Structures are given as C-alpha cells and as structure tokens.
Amino acid sequence: xxxxxxxxxxxxxxxxxxxxxxxxxxxxxxxxxxxxxxxxxxxxxxxxxxxxxxxxxxxxxxxxxxxxxxxxxxxxxxxxxxxxxxxxxxxxxxxxxxxxxx
Length: 102
Hints:
Elements: E1 4-9, E2 17-23, E3 26-33, E4 36-41, E5 55-57, E6 60-62, E7 69-70, E8 88-89, E9 91-94, E10 97-101
Antiparallel strand pairs: 1-10, 2-3, 3-4, 4-8, 5-6, 6-7, 9-10
C-alpha cells in the first residue's frame, strides 16, 4: 500500500536544483526542473552511482559516473550505458511542503 511521506519544504529545492533524502530502504531524489517538481530513485540503474552528485539539464539528470541521462518524468535512460529506467514517484505540494508517494 502506497503512503505519502514528507520529503522537504519546497524552498529547500530551488529552481534547477536537486535534494536527496532517504526513507527506510529507499534513496530518493527530488528535482526542481524549470519549476516542475519530480521524484525518482537516487541511484543510477547502471552502476549504482548517486545521481544527487550528477548534473541537471533540460534533458534530465546525468549520472556523474558514466554520463547516462535519465528523463525525470518517465525515468527512462536517454543514452547508454544505462538501459533500465529509474523508478519515478508521484509528487504533491501542500502548504509549501513536498510529499512523495512511496
């Protein structure tokens, strides 16, 4: 059963910035890309690099290790070597707080 958890306050994730946090066994990444908030797994599906130390662009988040880019809406990798998508999560904002459905 999915539950909504508080990730952070909206002002903790500025425009074109990332915020990482853990919830139980999940390592999650909140991204504010051009004013839209996304939530994905934080660990690259190719080599287990931490995407929070990667690079954010209009394409998505780029892995710092092998430079695969993941679309933040779908989680799909846009280039090799990653082949498996990131898990994405529903997000809601309530009274300036970001919640993720896990």
